[in-house]
Amino acid sequence: MALEESHVRRAAHLARLAVSDDQASGFVDDLSRILDMVDQLQSLDTEGVAPLAHPLDATQRLRADEVTETNQRDTFQRCAPAVENGLYLVPRVVE
Amino acid sequence: MQWETVIGLEVHVQLATRSKIFSGASTAFGAEPNTQACAVDLGLPGVLPVLNEQAVAMAVQFGLAVHAEIPEVSVFDRKNYFYPDLPKGYQTSQMYHPIVGAGDVEITLDDNTTKRIRIHHAHLEEDAGKSLHEDFHGMTGIDLNRAGTPLLEIVSEPDMRSAKEAAAYLKAIHSIVTYLGISDGNMAEGSMRCDVNVSVRPKGQEAFGTRAEIKNVNSFRFVERAIAFEVERQIELIEDGGKVVQETRLFDPERDETRSMRTKEEANDYRYFPCPDLLPVVLDQAYLDHLRNQLPELPADKRARFQNELGLSAYDANVLSASREMAEFFEEVHRVCGDAKQAANWVQGELSGALNRENLSIQNSPVSAQQLGELIRRVLDDTINGKAAKQVFQALWNGQGESADAVIEAKGLKQVTDTGAIEAMIDQVIAESPAQVAQYRDSEPEKRGKMIGYFVGQVMKASRGTANPQQVNGLLKEKLDALL
Amino acid sequence: MHDKTVTQLAAALASGELSSRELTSHFLQRIEKADGQLNSFITVTAEQALSQAEAADKARADGKAGKLTGIPLALKDIFCTQGVKTSCGSKMLDNFLAPYDATVVEKLSAAGTISLGKTNMDEFAMGSSNENSHYGAVKNPWDLAAVPGGSSGGSAAAVAAGLVPAAMGTDTGGSIRQPAAFCGITGLKPTYGRVSRYGMIAYASSLDQAGPMARTAEDCAHLMNVIAGHDVRDSTSVARGVPDYTETLNAPLSGLKIGLPKEYFGDGLDPEVEKAVREAVKVYESLGATVREVSLPHTHYAIPAYYVIAPAEASSNLSRYDGVRFGHRCDAPTDLIDLYTRSRAEGFGEEVKRRILIGTHTLSEGFFDAYYTKAQKVRRLIRQDFLDAFEDVDVLMGPASPTPAFDLGAKKDPVSMYLQDIYTIAVNLAGIPGISVPAGFAGGRPVGLQILGTHFAEAQLLNVAHQFQQATDWHLQLPAFAEENA
Predict the structure, then answer these.
(1) Residue numbers in C near B269 (CB within 8 A)
(2) What angle do CA B129, B269, A12 make, to 5 degrees?
(3) How far is C212 from chain B (nearest CA, A)?
């Protein structure tokens, strides 16, 4: 499956990565080679094989519905780039 | 042209767990911003989710209540998109293997007929935080307290054909989740939120029209208004030669209109894939049986029982089963007084009227079900008459007495049924009303029936309302007629 | 002191021959002196280490010491450490002082070990050479022109150079075993789910696993005793009893059935590496093991499958770095999209961006089934290869890497770098444990023998590795660099 620059641009947009024109063509080259390598998968017959998401056949353990966390806002917000009145600040979001 | 409306609803119900779906942070409403957002909710580097057993149980209870298939295995997926109120850059949800499969809900329409609305599926997911747009120097503030609150998203089939049906469906869902106690159903606080898919098609056409999705319609009333507006907009658009575009619209309750949201993203591509931090949830038959055995009687069953076993009208049965609190109150009143019809009348009449006047919910009623039941019992056993009963009710409402009996005693409202005593009062009234007696005597016989009312009123007054009105009536008629 | 194993140092501490304070100061001095050349640490927490050492000495005086109380260690900078910078090798987290401790870190400090600091790594654990670090490449103490391997290259180099007796690493596609091999030390990747991932910054969640890196298998066993076990905060950690890994170290190997996967001895394998590995297998035969060839037929699909699954998970895992709650934020963002795209473009390095883009692309509409679903199916076939093999043999052996450590800057093309992990990557896809032990040299650079076992066979792997180390002394050899900087 050939990779085009539009694919890279779209992925960059979805992943919210600023990519300059120069970088974009570099990524097209690199990603194309990676995908060529990945395309070996297509030659393998996997008819009837179930996808494997986790290496162990374990099932989800459930947690009791208990409040175990206390307010640590000050600690957590110490590593935040911009806060005011306990809120994280971002450029104005237009709805 | 005749148009038909096609509506499907996606209802997001906040589940009433104590802690969040994947963390031990509290879900309590109204805390200071970000004080209930723990490391997991904030998506700090390195944190991992662990699923809340209560969220699972609540989702399954809902599924059982809507006769849905509960698959043995369900899986959490990540829905990837960037938004400031979505800390991890993905929402943990269920795309491919939801916890609740296909089911159905019975709704009751205004004419008391019922209709089945199919549920496509319901899945668990985490709620996002909130963006606060008031001015922080041109910035938006993010509060992540709500992030990670468990949501059950209930997706209907496009089975509704009018705004009223949609509202009835939403009410039915509301009543199921509150009956089950899996949500407080508080729409004002956002515990239940609704996205509405609306399309129109010429009547008789099988293919669906292009739909618009109206986001965040958050009250029963708004659902009707938003749909009404949107249907009209779409019909006008098509009749003017235009075309409905598939888009997301926002309902503005102040202007009573829907408007196109500036597309958040040209083309959403959520890149769903199984969340590698969570394992498949496997529910065995014993677990389902255990939950099934704990299910309370549900609104539709209650409604049917009220009609079939208690002999209530369809209307009464519907009103009294609409909320779990109302139904429980009614059933307690009925248990105490033993007369379903009287209990229904009092709960819907005197009690509901008083509650509405003071804007109280039935849980906060100053008159308890026990008190009301006893009051009705005293009417039924002729201890008091209807008029006195209203006085007793008012006294109980005002907190002037512990029980109906205490009020009756204190106020001397016990009904007088002693014939001798009533006759004495009648004699006195007749003696004191010569003019009215003369008038009665001179009237045409067919008009006398009406005139007797005056004397009844006087006797009742003399008895301070305690005389048995039927007895008063009968005795008066005898005595007056004897004067003819 | 720097040439001693954890086991030996623990004995010296227990006998009172040595205090933790002396030991800790000694290693801190070595770091101070030598790490300018190696660049194996991103952060050295000298003050904290010394006060922990004093507390450890006091605990010992009070009779409250455990086996590892007072032993200095280093942590790959992927483990969250409360109040200490946790960068994950990225500019994105250059300013991130983690507000909590990872479970592994909690367990290690509860055991009384001392953290000397945080070791260098490929950014977000994406790399096989440690050249992808925001903090610069790490050098291999055996040859400063060579890479130490990656992504746990800082941990491997620091242990090999005697800057610390042991360190914690993580392994998503070989990131413990390959640097252990390149630096001539012992490194164990446990079964997926054996060690908690809580607080370990995620690269690819269904593959990531933490493990010990030390001079000997015995040291790794001691560390496994501390870090292994179920964690209620990690849904994928396994609730299963943890054995005492030191107890079975000396079990005899007679009758051990070793399988040599023929696919691990094919094209591209350096002849000197092959020779060293085959010599090692002979040692096992002399210890009573039997050897046979086996096949893992889907081996060649492991790298392609990995480069779908790992980047897909990574693209999602790394979305949280958005400049809002922590981490790098660009200057004066004009709007939301600018905040996101510029913060992320500035904060992430090239390889991370490449993998985010690959992962985003392969998950996107129209490609998901062809890539992601396909790769997951292949993943099942790869796991089945191993499960089938373990029906016939107890352990598998082969090289950890097709070549010894390569030169810094030698692999410019990402794909040729990825192909380095041919022998390690399938292990993560299958979730089985693997260990790399020193087994000689090729061109003067260390060779690692990789031993693989079935799920939860860590005790067996440590036993098999330990017996080899009783019969050989490759693991005791130190690079000249370690001595020159003594």
Answers:
(1) 364-365
(2) 95
(3) 19
**What part of A 75-94 touches C (C-beta under 8 Å)?**
75-76, 78-82, 88, 90-93
> B450-471, pLDDT tens digit by residue?
788 888 888 888 888 888 888 8
d(CA C403, CA C416): 12
Encoding tokens for residue B236? 């006008």
For residue C236, give the CATH number of its domain: 3.90.1300.10
Query: Is C151 part of the annotated catalytic residue set?
Result: yes
pLDDT digits over C360-404, tens only?
999 999 999 999 999 999 999 999 999 999 999 999 999 999 999
Provide the residue range defining the domain that includes C147. 6-251+456-484
d(CA A93, CA B140): 6
CATH of domain B419-482: 1.10.10.410
Is C400 part of any domain?
A: no
- Contact state of C324 with A58 under an 8 Å Cβ cutoff: no
**Can C205 be counted among the known catalytic residues?**
no
Query: pLDDT-derived band of residue B188, with 50, 70 and 90 as boundaries?
Result: confident
Beta partners for residue B151, in sequence order = B14, B125
pLDDT band per the 50, 70, 90 thresholds, residue B267 = low
C381 found inside a domain: no
Q: Between residues B294 and B412, which one has the greater pLDDT?
A: B294
The residues that bridge with B416 in the sheet, in sequence order, are B467
Amino acid identity, position C408: L
Is the interface score ipTM higher than 0.95? yes
Q: Walk me through the domains of chain A, giving residue ranges and CATH numbers.
A: 5-41 (1.10.20)
- Enumerate the domain spans of chain B: 3-287, 297-411, 419-482
Q: Kindly provide the b/e burial profile for residues C196-226, where b requires at least 16 CB atoms within 10 angstroms of the residue's own CB.
A: bbbbbbbbbbbbbbbbbbbbbbbbbbbbbbb
Q: How far apart are CA B5 and CA A79, in angstroms?
A: 52
pLDDT in tens, C273-325: 999 999 999 999 999 999 999 999 999 999 999 999 999 999 999 999 999 99
Question: Mean pLDDT over residues A14-20, rounded?
Answer: 96
- Subunits adjacent to chain A (3 or more Cβ pairs under 8 Å): B, C
For C376, the closest of A34, A51, A80 (CB atoms) is: A51
Rounded to whole angstroms, the Cα distance separating C168 from C172 reads: 14
Q: What percent of chain C shows pLDDT beyond 90?
A: 98
Q: Let me know if residue C411 belongs to a domain.
A: no
Q: Does residue B309 belong to the interface with chain C, where contact is any CB pair within 8 Å?
A: no
Domain assignment present for C164 = yes
Q: At what angle do helices B445-462 and B434-442 cross, to 10 degrees?
A: 160
Q: What pLDDT, on the 0 to 100 scale, is given for residue C486?
A: 59
Which site among B44, B52, B136, B275 would you substitute to test the C interface, given the most C Cβ atoms closer than 10 Å to its Cβ?
Answer: B44
Report the amino acid identity of residue B434: P
Q: Is the pLDDT of residue B266 over 70?
A: no
Number of domains in chain C: 1
Residues in chain A with CB shorter than 8 Å from the CB of C378 are 41, 44, 46, 49
When the pLDDT of each residue in chain B is averaged and rounded to a whole number, the result is 92
